[in-house]
């Protein structure tokens, strides 16, 4: 069976940005920013996205294009022991975990978009959200959202995913820009900008570890790296594309949409709510939604805002569902439409506990997703640097420009040492915090080095004599 590819570079970039943007930038990013000191979080997040996210994204794209397969098939077909296939399996599992909670929020957004036309949530936004956020009603909207996602994935890469995101992503950017201009004119917009953009070094110094772990998790979540999404999307890329250019474009566009979302949300939180932390993860549906009730043309503004969020949610959810679908199509030769229908039933079942139980949702959407994606990216980096090695450098250089090509060697050794150690530091920080263990940054660093250095040595030694497997799938 001939494998699908992207019709154009812009189609791939917009699809990848759509995967990255999603609810991570419009729903989760303002929430995480508000909970972690505003500008202190923003600066840390920007540093991680550019300094760690782009090299990590490159590692993911290299593995995907080198194999032309899904995460499991990639580690089967390329260099390395069979144990690396487990990492591919974790990617498939992570994608199912992601869409299981993500579709709950997608259902909320779909409902609020529809209800904006009647103003159903205007009178008592807090009470309204509490009444519909979990339970049978939330589950029903979750199922509708998943059906919309499955229909797009069922059509295929070019006609479904690429065509959809080519329309949706420009629409998201235009509508968000218009909303940001409108938010600028709200009464307390200046206070929102102060909280969001004026760097607070004192807060960062006092809360460095929590801010760092939250920013790292958010960076991986919004860039869709560590979970296999970008690896799968990269497997449809042709060889003449510059991966460094594509990775940089995806990261920059993703950052732009995220920062733009903040320029919409924070002026509204300061103008019409009780401050930046008002509403927590429900801020979008309580504080922001409540603001529209007090404004002229509130129904129109509410519908416009939630249309933006809905489009963003769909562009991400289709990338999550594509991972297990691609796995079953590639590895077993199943027909795409049948596989998609089967996966729809599975994610409805795995998503139900998130729709009915707030504690399950909070755990999955918070710590579990961050930990799984951090481990996934650490694995991608180690694999690209020490297992693929020279092959990764060769793949990096294909189609790369004159500025990027000389950096290939530096990139390889950075993703094999500095960056995964940084991510492991963040992983331990979050894990120990979840377990209720209080440690300082030096203790976490010692634990990180005692784990990472022997592991790097082990990988380098155990994989150095491993022969190459088939480099490309030629189905």
TrEMBL record:
- Protein keywords: Membrane, Transmembrane, Transmembrane helix, Transport
From the Swiss-Prot or TrEMBL record, state where the protein is found: Membrane
Source organism per UniProt? Halogeometricum borinquense
UniProt superkingdom: Archaea
Record's keyword annotation contains RNA-binding: no
Gene Ontology, cellular component aspect: membrane
Q: How does it sit in the membrane?
A: Multi-pass membrane protein
Q: Which SUPFAM superfamilies match?
A: SNF-like
Q: Which residues cross the membrane?
A: 12-30, 42-63, 84-114, 134-155, 167-184, 215-237, 249-270, 300-327, 368-389, 410-429, 441-461
Q: Which PANTHER family match?
A: TRANSPORTER (PTHR42948:SF1)
User: Which portions of this protein are annotated as coiled-coil regions?
Assistant: none
Predominant place of localization: membrane
Q: What is the designated name of this protein?
A: Sodium-dependent transporter
């Amino acid at each position: 069976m001939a494998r699908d590819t992207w019709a154009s570079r812009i189609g791939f970039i917009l699809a990848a940005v759509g995967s990255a943007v999603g609810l991570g930038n419009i729903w989760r990013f303002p929430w995480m920013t508000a909970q972690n000191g505003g500008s202190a979080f923003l600066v840390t997040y920007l540093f991680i996205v550019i300094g760690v996210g782009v090299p990590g994204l490159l590692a993911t794209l290299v593995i995907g294009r080198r194999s032309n397969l899904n995460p499991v098939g990639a580690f089967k077909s390329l260099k390395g022991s069979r144990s690396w296939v487990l990492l591919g399996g974790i990617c498939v599992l992570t994608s199912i975990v992601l869409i299981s909670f993500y579709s709950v929020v997608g259902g909320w957004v779909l409902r609020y978009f529809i209800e904006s036309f009647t103003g159903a949530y205007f009178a008592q936004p807090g009470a309204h959200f509490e009444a519909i956020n979990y339970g049978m009603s939330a589950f029903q909207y979750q199922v509708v959202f998943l059906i919309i996602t499955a229909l797009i994935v069922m059509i295929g890469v070019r006609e479904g995913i690429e065509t959809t995101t080519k329309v949706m992503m420009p629409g998201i950017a235009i509508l968000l820009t218009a909303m940001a201009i409108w938010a600028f004119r709200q009464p307390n917009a200046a206070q929102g900008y102060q909280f969001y953009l004026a760097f607070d070094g004192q807060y960062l110094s006092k809360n460095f570890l929590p801010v760092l772990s939250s920013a790292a998790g958010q960076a991986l979540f919004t860039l869709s790296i560590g979970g296999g999404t970008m690896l799968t999307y990269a497997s449809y890329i042709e060889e003449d594309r510059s991966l460094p250019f594509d990775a940089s474009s995806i990261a920059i566009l993703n950052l732009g949409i995220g920062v733009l979302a903040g320029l919409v949300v924070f002026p509204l939180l300061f103008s019409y709510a009780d401050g930046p932390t008002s509403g927590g993860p429900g801020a979008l549906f309580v504080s922001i939604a409540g603001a529209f009730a007090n404004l002229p043309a509130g129904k129109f503004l509410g519908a416009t805002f939630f249309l933006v969020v809905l489009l963003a949610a769909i562009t991400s959810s289709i990338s999550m569902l594509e991972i297990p679908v691609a796995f079953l199509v590639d590895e077993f030769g199943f027909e795409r439409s049948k596989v998609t229908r089967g996966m729809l039933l599975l994610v409805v079942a795995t998503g139900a506990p998130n729709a009915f139980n707030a504690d399950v949702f909070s755990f999955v959407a918070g710590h579990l997703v961050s930990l799984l994606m951090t481990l996934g990216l650490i694995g991608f980096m180690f694999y690209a640097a020490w297992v693929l090695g020279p092959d990764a450098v060769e793949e990096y250089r294909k189609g790369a420009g004159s500025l990027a090509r000389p950096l290939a060697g530096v990139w390889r050794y950075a993703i094999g040492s500095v960056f995964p150690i940084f991510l492991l530091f963040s992983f331990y920080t979050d894990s120990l915090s979840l377990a209720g263990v209080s440690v300082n940054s030096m203790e976490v660093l010692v634990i990180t080095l005692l784990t990472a250095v022997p592991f790097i040595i082990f990988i380098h030694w155990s994989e150095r004599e491993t022969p190459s497997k088939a480099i490309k799938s030629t189905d």
